[in-house]
Amino acid sequence: MKYFITDNPNAAVAIADIPEVEYAALYEDLKERLADSRYHVAHYFARPEENRLKFYLILLDDVKHKIMVSSFAMEYYDDIALPSLTALHPQMHPFEREIAELFNVEFDSMPWNKPLRFPHNRRNRNSSMDNYPFYTIEGESLHEVNVGPIHAGIIEPGAFRFICNGENVLHLEIALGYQHRGVECEFTKTSNRLRQTLLSESVAGDSAVSHAVTFSQTIEKLMGATTDENLNIERTVALELERMAMHIADTGALCTDVAYQLGQVACEALRTVVINTTQAWCGNRFGKGLIRPCGTNKPLTAAKIELIRKNVTDVRRRYNEVKEDIESSPTILARFEQCGLVPKAEMLRIGGVGIASRASGASRDIRASHPYAAYINKIEHQAVKMHDGDVMSRLMMRCHEVLQSADYILQLLADYTPANISQPDYTTPLRGEMLAVGLVEGWRGEICHVALTDKSGEVSTYKVKDPSLHNWLGLAIAVRSEGISDFPINNKSFNLSYCGHDL
After folding, report:
1. Around Cβ 226, how many Cβ atoms within 10 Å?
2. For residue 129, what pLDDT band results from cuts at 50, 70 and 90?
3. How are the residues of the chain apportioned to helix, strand and coil, as percentages rounded to the nearest 5?
4. What pairs with residue 107 in β-bridges?
5. CA separation, residue 335 to residues 329, 391, 395, 482, 485 (Å)
6. Does residue 292 sit in helix, strand or coil?
7. Which terminus of the chain has fewer Cβ atoms in its 10 Å neighbourhood, N or C?
8. In this predicted model, what pLDDT tens digit does every residue of 359-370 receive, in sequence order?
9. Are 193 and 426 in contact, with CB atoms under 8 Å apart?
10. Phi, psi for 12 (deg, rounded to 5)
11. 8 Å CB contact between 209 and 291
12. Residue-level pLDDT at 426
């Protein structure tokens, strides 16, 4: 089996250099390779190319830190169903479902042949959220509970269908796709690089920095540009500030769900300090406007560095006290321990990423497996891992990562001297007929952007994968055999993105 092998810091790949193989060879290779946890698929998608449908596979080798790219093609008139990889490796389900939904490709023995997003350009226009084929189970003692599609809170729409025996959840199916956002298509509708950057900040509003860094790295590869060490340091500081803010917010939200008011109000105050620090840096609490291709309009100054150091040091100390209180609270431990279990084997099977996977003992962290920015030569990242895979483990992952992120920020800024950093570059042409992959570990987990250019250097295809794409299935597994009243704390322990899924 042939792959073009590269790594995360490397430049874009010429499309002509990507091997084109037979599907049978790809199937047999992935059949064995994906059984090994060192490999997982970062992206797998199709796009029309002249009179053919071309499929691209982005496979990650987490041990050798390599990105492996391959492809295959089929004629439009081919009516042969492709053997489903999902039937062997469930991590492939979102990719095959999207390909089937967009291009009407049939996958033989596909166990979950259902729409993924209901995008505006789907082939079957009769398929809608109103006729989504939810699973059903027959039984006199069973009943269904529907949540959504319009959520009672101020979050985004999603449908949750529970099948319960009394109070116990037998099965949960989650259907998303109400918004029809068309984010990926918007990237190809404009050549204005600033507008594309703003789009990346809006993929998932709570991950504006993470997605903007991923986009910038992807575009810089297509430009053939390199970023200097100071810019990489400042981007890493921004990423870790975002991680701190969101993990602290989730800690407080979990405390809210079990009426632990002290933890709630403490975390609300600490999160405010962190996001206000980001606002003092760039003018926006979520880091919008900070990350730009090849440079920044908001470089750190001596005063801002001192503010970040002071605030991060104080937040670290105070948050550690909250962590210690949580760990010693019998009521919290009673609610969170052994609740919402997702074993490591299950998390690996579904392709789980980020803190949810690491809470189950899986080593999925792009900062360690495919390093970028300051993780290449300034920080030797050691991924935090838990092993129980329950709500408490997912909470403790956040607690430990907040402290770790604070340490990383202080380490990077300890001897950092502000220097001239280039202004953003919105005009350098992109190289034609190239493919570039951007990989970043957002606070939820692995983010992957893939861009392909046409002969003139315009972005012709742009694909985005938010970590929530994989982890929603983890939430569905977590609540099986739990009381339905435990759904809110399980949901909050994952805290997945609706808009990150509904692209």
Report:
1. 12
2. confident
3. 45, 15, 40
4. 82
5. 10, 9, 12, 12, 11
6. strand
7. N
8. 999 989 999 999
9. yes
10. -70, 165
11. yes
12. 96
Check residue 212 and report its DSSP letter. Answer: H
Please report the pLDDT score of residue 227 as a whole number: 92
- pLDDT interval class at 9 (50, 70, 90): very high
Closest by CA position to 453, among listed 183, 193, 103, 182? 193
- With tokens 């860094």, the residue in question is 213
pLDDT in tens, 178-211: 777 889 999 999 999 999 999 999 999 899 999 9
Average pLDDT rounded to a whole number, residues 225-245: 96
User: How far, in Å, CA of 26 to CA of 82, rounded?
Assistant: 11
Beta bridge partners of 47: 54
Sheet holding 159-165, edge to edge: 142-147, 159-165, 168-175
Buried b (16+ CB within 10 A) or exposed e, 185-223: eebbeeeebeebbebbbbbbebbbbbbbbbbbbbbbbbb
In the chain, the domains with their CATH numbers are 1-115 (3.30.460.80), 183-501 (1.10.645.10)
In the predicted model, is pLDDT for residue 307 greater than 90?
Answer: yes
Average pLDDT, the chain: 94
Distance between CA atoms of residues 105 and 128, nearest Å: 18
DSSP 145-187: EEE-SS-SSSS---EEEEEEETTEEEEEEEE---S---HHHHH
Nearest residue to 211 via CA among 219, 222, 220, 203:
203
- 468 close to 206: Cβ distance less than 8 angstroms: no
pTM of the model: 0.96
Output the CA torsion sign for 494, 498, 502, 503: negative
51-106 tens-digit pLDDT? 899 999 999 999 999 999 999 999 876 778 999 999 999 999 999 999 999 999 99
Residue range 273-284, pLDDT digits in tens: 999 999 999 999
Residue 297, number of CB atoms within 10 A of its CB: 12
SS3 of 129-141: the string is HHHCCCCCCCCCC
* Burial class of residue 141, CB neighbours in 10 A (0-12, 13-18, 19+): exposed
303 token code pair: 């005063």
**Among 4-8, 136-140, 327-331, which stretch is predicted with the lowest mean pLDDT?**
136-140
